[in-house]
Amino acid sequence: MAGALAGIRVLELAEGVSGPYCGKLLAGLGADVIKVEPLNGDRTRRDGPFPGDAPNAECSGLFLHLNTGKRSTIADLATGEGTAVTRLLRGADVVITSLRPAELAAAKIDLDAWRAEYPALVIASVTGFGLNGPYADYRGGELITYSLGGYAMLTGSPDREPLKAYGSLVEYQAGAQLALGVMAALLAREVTGTGQVVDCAAMQAATFLLGAVEQGAHFYGRIHRRNGTRLLGFPPEHSYPSTIRPCADGYVHCHSNNRFLDLLGVLIPHPRLAAPDLLSSMMGHADEVDAIMDEWLADKTREAIVSSAQELRLPFTEVREPGEVMSEPHHRERGSFVTIEHPGAGPVLQPGAPFRMSATPWTCAPAPMLGQHSDASWTGNETAPTRPETQRRGLKPLSGLRVIDFTNAVAGPIASFILADLGAEVIKVEAPGSRPKVAAGVAPLLEGADAPSYNRIMTFNELNHGKRSLALDVATAEGRELFLALAAKSDVVVQNFSPRVMGNLGIDFETLRELNPRIVLASMPAFGLSGPLRDRISYGPGIDAMSGLSHLTGYADGPPMKPGNFFCDQQAGVLTAFAVCAALRHVERTGEGQHLELAMIEGEFQVLGDAYIDYAMNGRERRRTGNDHPAMEPHGMFRCRGEDAWVAIAVEDEREWMALCNLIGRTEMAARYAGAAARRAARGDIAAAITAWTEGRTHYEAQAELQAAGIAAGAVLNAAELLTDPHVRAYSGFEYVETPGVGRTPYPRVAFRLSETPVPVSGPAPGFGEANDYILRELLGIPTAEVDELRRCGVVADEPTGVGH
What we know:
Elements: E1 9-13, H1 18-28, E2 32-37, H2 61-66, E3 70-74, H3 84-89, E4 94-97, H4 101-106, H5 111-117, E5 122-127, H6 142-148, H7 169-192, E6 197-201, H8 202-208, H9 213-220, E7 242-247, E8 250-255, H10 263-267, H11 276-279, H12 286-297, H13 302-311, E9 317-318, H14 322-327, H15 329-334, E10 337-342, E11 346-351, E12 356-357, E13 402-406, H16 411-421, E14 425-430, H17 458-463, E15 467-471, H18 477-488, E16 492-495, H19 499-505, H20 509-515, E17 520-523, H21 540-547, H22 549-552, H23 567-590, E18 594-597, H24 600-605, H25 609-618, E19 635-639, E20 646-650, H26 654-663, H27 668-672, H28 676-681, H29 683-694, H30 699-708, E21 712-715, H31 719-724, H32 726-730, E22 734-739, E23 743-748, E24 752-754, H33 772-779, H34 784-792
Parallel strand pairs: 1-2, 1-4, 2-3, 4-5, 5-6, 13-14, 13-16, 14-15, 16-17, 17-18
Antiparallel strand pairs: 6-24, 7-8, 8-9, 10-11, 12-18, 19-20, 20-21, 22-23
Helix pairs in contact: 1-7, 6-8, 7-8, 7-23, 16-23
């Protein structure tokens, strides 16, 4: 079967992680991706891991992971017209670049000229800070964008320096967001006939990960800070635990069942866990809960703990190492890791598809050898892009389409609010008990307004902005029939319940397809629709534990930690929205709907590819290393003047090291500590010298001076600072939306900008059941008397019946 992007030609002029990851996602769906590399190859060819630690440009695990399914040719971007790049541009649908504005100018690349000469071309740019704004030409990198984007302030222990999570989470997020932007631009082109610029900023990708902490800053001046192994500081009445604790053979991620708080006391028979004062304020008693859990966990294994908890539907999970993940029978049965034969590296076991598509499967092919396709050209005739019949109309790429959001928690709502921002009408089908009637964590009520607390829940409103609400009990026979009737009039259904729940409801893809052959069903189970762990439940942080991400994140001398806030959920939401857009393109060409399966853990496998491949190549389990980097030194956070104020600094080469020594007035250190190895051996002395300089400056002052000297640096910003940051404002990183009863509310935008079909936040979150009459009477044509009877029977609700927080 052909891929969903068969016929799309992509020219990749990008190095590193973000741009190549975008190219990988497009290639996996069938696009023809030609990668243009410099003479010495993409820099990830030098990053490893290598078999036996012997450097070899054809065997770098990171390159092999990021560049599956592409072709490679060699060209010097600075040679000007007449190069292979110019020849390939003529037939390309998409070009990917990762050059900052100054670097584009140095390479004599004029994006405006490209747009004029190739009007149907989609130009996809991903940089640290975007193509415009005061930081556009700043030196970036993972540590810098992670810090400036606000995510570092949420990662680590409150009594230590902020922490960057393992690897390149923000750069992977930026790559996925760029791929989503490319899909949106391609769908828009099928309506308008023209291409456009997709401008993606890694700093904004980090801000997208914040998870509503900016609303606490906006409404209450509350600054969320890193919280160790616990989820961020929710109010005392919030449920608990959500934390990582030690046990007999390692660590487990412990999480409450947010609907049934007393289940923790069933698992751990301690009288305090059934006490009303504790159950009504679990987060407020977090220290006490941890002490009770630690005593009970101490002599038990991970497997025994998780098995007992899951039997009670408590979403506990094991903290696993990468090698343990790869040997897990569930992943073996599902083929989550695949062996790809590479002409230079031989057989390489690595992550497989990030998601599965029933009609247009993902393809796994080896990464190219350097210059393997030296005379690469596009196959087939170079004709104008086809424009299939489409029902999409309007200013946004998905205008005219309808999506049913049948999700809860975090990941599913993120996927569907992205689709809303892209223009779709999104109807959130929520159960009568889905929201608590008396809610915590709410935005303040405007003076004179009358908005109940359940319509002012800050996290809910961020995750569900731009949608309509239908309060429907789908578990009843009448509710199920109404759901199916709505699906018959929709284009997409997104659901993230466990397979057991959807099976009990009798709602599967075959049922939906009989009613609507064009339907796209996107399922987002934690661990997949098949395999021994299919019915295991987990929230995003528990998946971070089971993927190996928590094991790899943390200080070198500390326990496993969470990566900021909700990373797995955000990652899954973006990938699902991307896959949905690709499936919709297929629908418009063939009339064929399909079932998408995004096992959240398999989506997260993508961001840990180098760690898994290191284990496969060398049998080596990677360990926590704090903010250290294998090649850059110094690479870390340094205290500045002010409360909990820090600046991140990443020295990439000897030029930057000399510039740093000159800037801080310690020129004698330049020669003494030449080379990253020498600096690593003297890390304490160097850190003291840098800190002596940074402590006399604010983090913004240090950032400005360091960047002016050509050194990658960024202030570690908190949510309140992000709301006023000049670059965030220039890039419209947050959009303020009028929310009923609350007023102006900031929501983070997707990390890309579309030059011709902008995708601003589509509107506020819906009030509970606010669209009941519109959907039941107008869309489905149900008589008023029948709607009233549905209300009387509790099938439809106008007020929530839930309890909890």
